[in-house]
Amino acid sequence: MSSIAEKPYTRKDWEEHCRFIAESSSDFVKDTPADKEKRIKKLLSNYGLFFEYYFSMFASARCSWYQIFIAHLLLRMPVIFLILEWFRGSAKSIHADMGYPLWLWAHKEMKCMVLLGQNQTIAQILLSDIQAQFEKNEKLEYDFGSQVSIGDWETGEFKTRDGCAFFARGMGQSIRGLRNGPHRPDFIVADDLDTEELSRNPKRIKDTVNWLNDGALGAVDIGNQRFILVNNGPFATSILRSMVKEKITGGIKVSIRSIMRNIRAAGAFTYQIKGKWHYLRVNAVDEDWQPSWPEKYTREYWKDFAADRSMRSWLREWQNTPIVEGGTFKPEWMQWKQLPPLKKYRKLIIYVDPSAKDNADFKAASLWGMYDTELHKIKCFLRQSSRLNLVKYLYDTYEWVRSKNAYVTIKMEGNFAQDELFKDIFKEEGKRRGYQLPFTFDKDQKGDKFDRIESTSALYEQRNIYWNEAERTSSDMITAEQQLLAIERGSKAPDDGPDADTSAIYYLMDIKRIRDFNIRTGSITKEREV
């Protein structure tokens, strides 16, 4: 189907799409009644098989775990409200708008669907694909009978021969009173409602959230209430994020494997539940570039793909991580280059901020070096991970530096000097490696965090700082750049990476506590030291 945004979608386009579906679904063997019943039963037991058989025209790769997981969740739970934040290229629309409703229809679990789009026209175009499947998919017709419909997608509604109704409505339009005989809507999908323009209008976002709560959710049937809000997450201010904050805050993180043991979940994802509300966020890759849809994408594909995109675009569209650029550090100040061998640095330091909570706050460890008058960010660890993973990283990095015939100082936030549990983790890893990692605690009083971080902005502006080009596609460096560009007084964005970087810079430049200073490339003029 042609992109909705590229050009108007006409009746001729739809008829061409119908021919494509007919041709794509005609290549199958007509089996005996007994074999047919057995085959249908097998297809209805597994969404992956169901989608790949009936919609082979869209199945360019095997279904991934998250697509299958949601389908079976919908089937098992007649009352469920889903927020799906899936990366661009995740096939979110084709499954939410077509695969899932036809899966429920085939199981006789749906009588009245409403598809909500950015506007009425877009909603009708999205609905047209469902009608095209009913009209021209020969596999569906052979297994479930002819469903030539009454009504038409161009009017925003149609009904199949077996009595299932489908409606299309635009954002903000009323869906009160929509019925299919005695059946009120029992499956509602709100697809890609967020736009760049909308993200700049908090009032419209609030109005749309109210419309979803009052209009859409208020229209669902009793006892059969399935709702999906689906989008990727490129905007910091959006309908999706507002709904996540409102519906999921305080919910619990759940292991998908504990629910569906046959699912082998890979990639980067978060699954949370609060009451009947479920939130599944799926990024393109995890911190090691393992793809969430390995049946379609490889690590190498995503690494090459990301390298050809701007950092802002990659994070927003494929990692569901909007970069909210503050006014302190500018993207044009970022410099990347190939760095010299480690043994040529005047000084090397790893500065560590372990954070207080395991797997919650960001753990930060930044390796920096001074080369002539330049400061180089060589590599880093910046993850919401366990302290054990951080400790292993520190040992690995220390051993890597020593293998290059170089020496490095390791300093750690002094707040953790009395943390016996953290010290025990180091001791255990030291026993395993055969030596204890040499590090000291930084107990200097540091003052206001924003002032300290901001004080390094002159070094970036005067192009005295370079980041390691070889680590540019590292998920840790991506996160570090994102956090740096988001720095702004009063912002609640994470700043653990820039904070550790600042302490490393202070060490390399022999600065302890600075409130204000001017910087000239190659020299430091301190104006006030406290």
Write up what this structure looks like.
There is one protein chain. The N terminus and C terminus are likely disordered. The chain contains 19 helices and 19 strands. A hairpin with a 4-residue loop joins β3 and β4. 38% of the residues lie in helices and 20% in strands. It is α/β, with parallel strands linked by helices and 530 residues long. The protein has 2 domains: 291 residues, P-loop containing nucleotide triphosphate hydrolases (Rossmann fold, 3-Layer(aba) Sandwich), CATH 3.40.50.300; 207 residues, Nucleotidyltransferase, domain 5, CATH 3.30.420. The strands form 3 sheets. It has a 10-stranded mixed sheet with strand order 3-4-5-2-6-7-1-10-9-8, sandwiched between helices. Strands 11-17-14-13-12-15-16 form a 7-stranded mixed sheet.
